[in-house]
Amino acid sequence: MSTPETSRFVRLRVELVLEVEDAGEVAKAALRRIAEDPELPDEERTHAEAAVTEDTAEAVAYLVDPFDLVSEVPGIELQQASWSSERISYDPDSPEWDLDEDDDEGDEEEDGIG
After folding, report:
1. Over the chain (114 residues), what is each successive 10-residue block's mean pLDDT?
2. DSSP string, the chain
3. Helix axes 56-63, 23-35, angle to 10 degrees
4. Residues 76, 5: Cα–Cα separation, whole Å
5. What CA–CA distance (Å, rounded) separates 18 from 111?
6. Are 59 and 34 within 8 A, CB to CB?
7. Four-residue CA torsion sign, 25, 26, 27, 29
8. pTM across the whole model
9. What pLDDT is attached to residue 101?
10. Selection from 56, 31, 55, 58 nearest residue 45 by Cα
11. pLDDT at 108
12. Is the distance from CB of 62 to CB of 48 less than 8 angstroms?
C-alpha cells in the first residue's frame, strides 16, 4: 500500500481491561490531576471532581490520556481522540474475551481506507 492514494491517517484501536485494586487511590490520583489542570474552569472542575469520586471508571477515564500514548512517537501527530471507560464483568477464561476476535473486522475496514 505505498501508492499515492494511500491515506496518511491511521486509526489505532486499543481495548484494555484493567483490574482496579484500590479504587480510593485511583480517585485520589484523578483528583490530583484535576487540581493540577490550570485550564479547567471551576464549574467543570466541580463536575469532574464529583464524577471521579463517585465512579472509578470515570476516574480511570480521566487519568488515561490517548495523547500520552503517542506523544513521543516520532513522525506522527494526534489528530483526534476519544475514549471511555465502564465497569464490566470479566472472565479471562471466557471465549467472549478473545483478543483476536476483531481481526476479521479490522481487515475489512483496512481495505476501505484510502
Report:
1. 74 90 97 95 96 96 90 93 88 78 50 43
2. --STTS-S------------S-HHHHHHHHHHHHHT-TTS-HHHHHHHHHHHHH-HHHHHHHH--HHHHHTTSTT----------------TTSGGG-TTTTHHHHHHHHHT--
3. 50
4. 19
5. 31
6. no
7. positive
8. 0.70
9. 58
10. 31
11. 46
12. yes
Integer Cα distance of 98 and 105 in angstroms: 14
**Closest to 12 (Cα-Cα) out of 98, 90, 113:** 113
Residue 102 CA to residue 99 CA, distance in Å, equals 7
The predicted structure's pLDDT at residue 92: 83
For residue 59, count other CB atoms closer than 10 A to its CB. Answer: 27
Element of type H or E holding 26? helix 23-35
CA distance 81 to 102: 20
Predicted local confidence at residue 22, as pLDDT: 97
